[in-house]
Every structure is written in structure tokens, then in C-alpha cells.
Specification:
Order of helices and strands: HHHHHHHH
CATH architecture: Up-down Bundle
Radius of gyration: 17 Å
Number of helices: 8
Strand content: under 5%
Structural class: mainly alpha
Shape: globular
Oligomer: single chain
Low-confidence stretches: none
Helix content: over 70%
Mean pLDDT: 91
CATH class: Mainly Alpha
Number of domains: 1
Distance between the termini: 42 Å
CATH topology: Vanadium-containing Chloroperoxidase, domain 1
Largest sheet: none
Number of strands: 0
Length: 179
């Protein structure tokens, strides 16, 4: 059983590296690189403050619930993300894969899980729950933020998937608290 798990982990790691190299290999076109840079920056956190202010401005229960769910979810997601990063200590692709140069400065040392993906999926999920008509653009944006982190050379695909799972889990916690 132990050997089977080691083989599975090995194959997942190899596929992760293959997928990373493939996605990262698409960069090098100035306009597209700039697009993904800006998209990635939209997940830095400043946008979340603006969304929170807008939700307060709405002055209705739907906006207030979304704000409270978001604050609760972020209060779980952020410390869990930091703890996992410190425990896993996964080195970023540009430091561990030869020939990779990052196209954006990462906010911290470790890559697993992607905090940008976690936050983007967290906010997309909560806003989609409270405002269903905009769920397609929200989840599309969150997916592109995650993709941009791979494209820009600061995360492996598995980092983004783990971030997505963390963000969605935290959002469900936040939604559960306010419903």
C-alpha cells in the first residue's frame, strides 16, 4: 500500500510539472503577459475591500450576509493558508524548475497552496451564492486568476487546485455561518 501511494504521488508530481511547463510555455507575448499580470493583480486583495464597501453600500440583507460570510470565510482561509504553506514548504516553480523566470513578484516564499486562488474562489463562491445571476463571470474570473498564477511562473497547477479547494471550503463555512 505504501509503495502504491509513493508511485501515485510520483505520477501526480510528474503530471503537475508537465502541466506547469506546458502552461508556462505559452507566455512571452507582451499583451497576453500583461493581461495575465493584471488579472493576477486583481486577486491581490484590494478588489475584495472595494467589494466589501459596495456590499455595505447596498444596505440590504443580501449584501450584509455576503459581507459577513466573506469576513468569516477569510478569517478561516488566511490562517489556514499560512499554516499549510509553513508546513508544506513547497518551493515556487521559478526556484525549483530550471529555466523558469517569474513574471510577477510572489507575495511570500512558499507556493502551496495558492493564496490568490483561495481568495478568488472564496469571494466568487460567496458572491455567487448571494447573487446567482453573476456566478458565471465570477467563477470565470476566479479560474483565470488561478490560471494566471501558473502562467506567470509562481505556482504549480496543484497549488492552484489546493487553493481553490481551500477557498471553496472556507466560503462554505462563511455561508453556513450566516444562513
Amino acid at each position: 500500500m505504501k509503495n502504491a501511494l509513493k508511485r501515485l504521488a510520483y505520477h501526480i508530481s510528474r503530471f503537475d510539472l508537465f502541466l506547469f511547463r506546458h502552461i508556462f510555455g505559452w507566455n512571452g507575448r507582451k499583451k497576453i503577459d500583461r493581461f495575465f499580470y493584471l488579472l493576477s493583480r486583481s486577486g491581490d486583495g484590494y478588489l475584495y475591500g472595494a467589494v466589501g464597501a459596495y456590499l455595505l453600500f447596498l444596505r440590504d440583507m443580501t449584501g450584509l450576509k455576503a459581507l459577513l460570510a466573506s469576513l468569516s470565510a477569510f478569517s478561516l482561509e488566511l490562517p489556514v493558508s499560512v499554516l499549510i504553506k509553513k508546513w508544506a514548504r513547497r518551493i515556487r516553480p521559478f526556484e525549483s524548475v530550471e529555466g523558469i523566470l517569474h513574471l510577477i513578484k510572489p507575495p511570500d516564499k512558499y507556493s502551496f497552496p495558492s493564496g490568490h486562488a483561495a481568495a478568488a474562489f472564496l469571494i466568487a463562491d460567496i458572491l455567487s451564492f448571494q447573487f446567482p445571476p453573476i456566478q458565471v463571470p465570477l467563477y470565470s474570473w476566479a479560474s483565470l486568476v488561478g490560471f494566471s498564477r501558473i502562467y506567470l511562473g509562481v505556482h504549480f497547477p496543484s497549488d492552484v487546485v489546493a487553493g481553490m479547494i481551500l477557498g471553496l471550503s472556507a466560503s462554505h463555512f462563511g455561508i453556513w455561518l450566516v444562513t
